[in-house]
Amino acid sequence: MSETAVKIGGNKQSLFINEVKALLPDGGNLNLCLTCGACSSGCPATGLEGMDPRKFLRMAAMGLDDEITSTPWVWMCSMCTRCVYVCPMKINIPQLVFYTRQSWPREERPKGILGSCDMALRNDTCSAMGTTEEDFQFVVEDVLEEYREAQPEFTAMQAPVNKKGAHYFLNQNSREPVTEPDEMVPLWKIMHQGGADWTYGTKGWAAENYCMFLADDEKWEHIVRTKVKAVEDLGCNVWLNTE
Amino acid sequence: MEKFNIEANFEIQSIIQLYAQWIREGKLKPSLEWNKDRKIKFTVQDPCQLVRKSFGDPVAEELRFVVKAVVGEENFIEMYPNKSNNYCCGGGGGFLQSGHTEARREYGRLKAEQILTTGASYCITPCHNCHAQIHDLSDIREHAWDTVHLWTLLCLSLGVLGPNERAYLGDDLKDVLVFHPETEM
């Protein structure tokens, strides 16, 4: 409990929470809180920056807009949705957090997330590490060739790139091709033994999406559309998410 | 895609579902021989994105089916809570790139305590963000456990894991069932 009385927003007409409610199906149930605290008691972010999910929602409901739109806590909530899962009223606090992130001026959002989003926008690979289509294809083919030679049982192993009509379009976190390419090999071996007809795409192969975390809807949509187009252009039936 | 009303003419699947399917179909035949006498214990992190936010408890069951098939049922130890009710490790939502390192590690304390409570030597993390975060949570505790991808263990139990594909195995498994040991770099 607060030591001093909290002054609430008074007669303010347009509260931030109302703007968010307008964006969510059923208003995200944001006005249904019973204050039971199930969200906060099972939230690993409880206590960081003196905040927790229930407190955040209550502050929003009371119109403490300046406070909720300035706390860095919104970047410490991982939007894991456990609070929604345990909430008897299914209140979508993570969406409130998401739109609060969005209320921050873009250039003031965390530099690491911003940088990774901007990097992913540089080319159609969507790689947050800025890997180009050529570099990705080169690494895959180079590593594949090396392993086919070194491990003769896998001479017939494939790691196709841009194979039209393959059943599965497999994505890959940028870290493997860029910093630890040997880690891709166990995955290829499993695909090989499973008998899968699969492919990577030089476009849209990167599994990560930092523009989503940045709460940059326009850029997030761009990334998703680029990836969807990549899968469709190759005529694949399944977009297969890696580990 | 739902958010942006994008209609696509393909399905979305997780590779975990395929691992399970291929083991059931006999396309993949993992052997438990390597852990029969060693009895090395494993726990598993249910990735929020995979389980709670995408496919729910059914995929958590698939995940356990695969884990048990590669490490042995008696060598798998659950964390509590788990599956859809699992705690996030703190690697998601951009936390790893947000610059709030101390807060991220404090967030992960709950996960670290969960893992330590199991007493397992390894935490399996079938998600890239979970892998990076849980690896870091171990490192700041003097490497209290090893953090490993599922593909590593699957290939180990298939007998096809080479010497250069073992970056995340601990010393207890570095030399076990090495495929083409002569190719070590």
What do these coordinates show?
The two termini of chain A are 42 Å apart. Chain A folds into two domains: 89 residues, Fumarate Reductase Iron-sulfur Protein, Chain B, domain 2, CATH 1.10.1060; 130 residues, no CATH class. The mean pLDDT of chain A is 94. In chain A, 47% of the residues are buried. Helices cover 43% and strands 4% of the residues of chain A. Chain A contains twelve helices and three strands; from the N terminus they run ααααααααβααβααβ. Chain A has 243 residues and is mainly α. Chain B has 185 residues and is mainly alpha-helical. Chain B has one domain: Rossmann fold, CATH 3.40.50. Chain B is built from eight helices and four strands; from the N terminus they run E-H-E-H-H-H-H-E-H-E-H-H. In chain B, strands 2-3-4 form a three-stranded parallel sheet, with helices on both faces. In chain B, helix 1 packs across helix 3 and helix 3 packs parallel to helix 7. The longest helix of chain B is centred in the middle third of the chain and has 15 residues. Chain B starts with 10 loop residues before the first strand and ends in an 11-residue tail after the last helix. The mean pLDDT of chain B is 97. At the A-B interface, helix 5, helix 7, strand 1, helix 10 and helix 12 of A face strand 1, helix 1, helix 4, helix 5 and helix 7 of B.
